[in-house]
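Cross-check.
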Amino acid sequence: MDQNDGYHRLRDGRVSLPGQIYHVTLTTQYRQPVFRDFGHARAVIRVMHRTAERHRCRSLCFALMPDHLHWLVQLGETGTLQTLMRTMKSISAHHVGRPIWQDGYHERAIRVEDDVRAVARYIVANPLRAGLVARVGDYPHWDAVWLL
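Predicted model, tokenized:
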């Protein structure tokens, strides 16, 4: 069996629901710290915002770490999470000038009973937990629609 066969079977079970909020995690190829480069990080953040707007999604919160991304995003009434991720990964790699993302991504649908702001707090605290900064506000590559 081809190693990618299992990966594709996992994707077969994915369902994108209009209006659903997802916590998506993407990693860079070989966990390379691509986003230690400030310009690369800001380019990817611009692409994230434009892609979300283009797909009529709402970017609720994100933290772009040196080697991965946590993104809390709400789908619009049309389109799929798979299309959003494929577009964002492709365009951001183009802007950085080389392939940067590992194949696939991990997503978790946020249930109605989940506290969305608690998930957002978890996401924006990633740089603090990783020891990159002493205070969340000192990290330049995060944002949230709420004042956390």
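The longest helix spans residues 38-54. The first strand starts at residue 21 and ends at 27. Passed to J.P. for a second look.
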